[in-house]
Amino acid sequence: MKKNTVIGVSGLLISAIYGYGIASLKNPSKLFFAGTTVFPILITFGALIFSVIVILKGHYEGDNAEVLKMDPKVLKMMGVFTVIFSIYIAIFNKVGFLISTIAMLTSLLFIFNIGKSQRIINIIVGIVFPTLCYIIFAKIFSISLPRGILPF
Amino acid sequence: MNEILINLAGGFVSIMTLSNLFWITFGGFLGTVIGMLPGLGPATGVAILIPLTFGMDPTTALATMVAIYFGAMFGGSRSSILLNTPGDGGAIAATFDGYPMAKNGRAGEALAISAIASIIGGLIAVVFLALLSQPISKLAIKFGPQQYTMLMLFALIATSTISRGNMIKGLLATFIGLMVSTIGADHLTGTTRFTMGIAELYQGIDFLVLIIGFYAIGEVYINFDKLLYIGENEKTVSEIKMNKVRISKKEFKECLIPILRSTPLGFLIGVLPGAGATIATMVTYSTEKKMAKDPDSFGKGNIVGLAVPEAANNAAATGAIIPMLTLGIPGSGTTAVMIGALMMIGVKPGPLFFTTQGHIAWAVVASMFIANFILLIINLPLATQLVKVLKTPPKILLPCVITLGFIGTYSLTYSTLDFIIITAFGVIGYFVKKLDIPVATFILALILGVKLETSFRQAMVIGKGDFGIFASDPITIFFIVATLVSIFGPRLTAMLKLKKVSK
What pTM does this model have? Predict the structure, then answer.
């Protein structure tokens, strides 16, 4: 698919959703031009106009148009990462920062850094890096990170 | 002049504490290391290191951020010179002559001139900054809502138009950024907008969270492309023969005048919203090439060809801080991240910053001088040690960057809802980059959105609904002209050049 078509259509969709949101807003100011809706209306028009221009640009580019090429491997990897992040988000507060982050980082490292010889490195980095971060941020900078099931 | 010197002296007194010096050194070191990592620029560096500044007093926090920023600019050139892989856009020009120098067995000289040119460019630019900041602030104090509206419109449009071939995409990204900025409670009436009933969104989307999603997670996804196929052809720093990190007097003399020539130009380009270090380095490089006696040697390892963009790069980085401190308007992606972080710690840069928080402002200017010297110390004697960072495989580094992104996000709001936002915006950021949409325009619109809307509506009330208020005085007219020039100027120049060639 042409890059400009993807961008233009996405712009139109976003503008439509945003425009639907504007319709449900009230304009509490007596002066319309100073109210809650005037700025959103103006920027929606702007987005619509440029979305259409981008689509037309893509249309007239013909065969010279740049095409969006997606690597299935990258998409798959992004999907796997999103699943790992979702599990991380779900367990973060329950099991605490340290254990959940060690689990997340180690998983990411094992996905990327494949090979028998890399296993030890992955485990060491997966444990040491979050532990160091925990000491620096929670203990030195007093940023409150959830302890979860750990006593410290 | 006397007032500036007295203020600056006061700044030096405030900043010269052991704790401040430690943080400037540490920030500079971390910035250098992050800047060296291919694909990770200063914006990502500042974004993921924001939590470091929490709990600090505003002066130390701002000085640390500046040190991280400058350090990343220094570090960005290391991977350009040794791996032919720039850390960010501003370091691209360093590959032209830096990498050929390294391949020809002159890696030490390349690293040395890069650090020396950077410090000279950086220091001169800080002098310009000290001289210009107060007059700009004094002028900006006179701005009312209509002038601010036009200034912000100029900044947004100039940022969009600067990306060649992507102007329309940039403008569309600007409007979408403005849309996202309206989510949450209306700042003038308190009415909630576009929150979909989610209580956490009443305060709006924290743009720092979004920035971390875009820059930290999105950048990692972009690196997937390379990472998945790293194999036999992977370039490593060990292929480069390292000699002593120093240059001869003759080489220094050869570079000095070009450095002094390119610094003011780099600085001026840096001050312009959106222009930034990439354009500054490209413009100064091509200008110097045209002026050189042996232009053919450029691109083949000419030391001047490396010194010039390095000086311009740091001068532009310093220049970009001026609109941030004096107008409250970020001029680049990194200063956009910095302004967000500053708001978190209660510092409000803008026209009154040098008046109401002058002690912080001048201490930060003083810290820029110190940061440059500290970075020279880090980057010259420790150069050979620092480049070992480049040997760390990205397959290990990038997951660690993700982890830092999550910690940074959590420390901003202590809410895991923001984890969902960075995960989503990481994916969006990947597609945005794949589609060649300029990210900086989106981010800038997101940051300026609330201010722009507020100024616009206030101006409309003053003008009783008449749009003529936005062209009612010399300042607003100046910004209208500047905006038109930013849109049509490059096209007119290109057309004139074509006419000349055809004649």
Answer: 0.78
